[in-house]
Amino acid sequence: MKERKSGRSSVQQQQQQHLNGHFSPFKFTRLFDPDASWDKDQLGDVLHWIRQVVALICGLLWGAIPLVGGIWIILFLAISSGIIYGFYAMILKVDEEEYGGHGALLQEGLFVSIMLFLLVWILVYSLAHF
């Protein structure tokens, strides 16, 4: 009986923390729900981290395959921006004007992802092929 009460009280505490803004549980199902409401910071964070994952994967692939040249940087930018655009425009179906337009959404996390992509690409290429 006491366990149930303590279980309920912990759930109530989590809900209270969520309401106060101190604790925000994130559900992955929300990532693919077009009816979910997003504030500007949450959507920006999601787009930022998606772009970082894409940068990490592309950097690992480019370095392992041994690709060289500037065309591969441009291809990474096209792939990364295409994934981000497809995510917010086609999957989430958000109104981009509420979040600052296409430019603001496509720019979210762009420069950090370029640096991560280049770092991983160079490290993997150098370590694997020299």
Overview of this structure, please?
This protein has helices at 2-20, 40-64, 71-91, 101-107, 110-129. With 130 residues, it is mainly α. Helix 3 (71-91) crosses helix 5. The chain is elongated. Residues 1-11 have low confidence and may be disordered.
SSE arrangement:
Elements: H1 2-20, H2 40-64, H3 71-91, H4 101-107, H5 110-129
Helix pairs in contact: 2-3, 2-5, 3-5
SS element count, helices? 5
Largest sheet: none
Strand runs, count: 0
H-E order = HHHHH
Beta fraction? under 5%
Mean pLDDT: 85
Q: How far is the first residue's CA from the last residue's CA? A: 65 Å
| Percent of residues in helices | over 70%
Jot down its keywords:
130 residues, mainly alpha, 0% strand, disordered N terminus
Short précis:
By secondary structure, the protein is mostly helical. The protein is 71% helix and 0% strand.
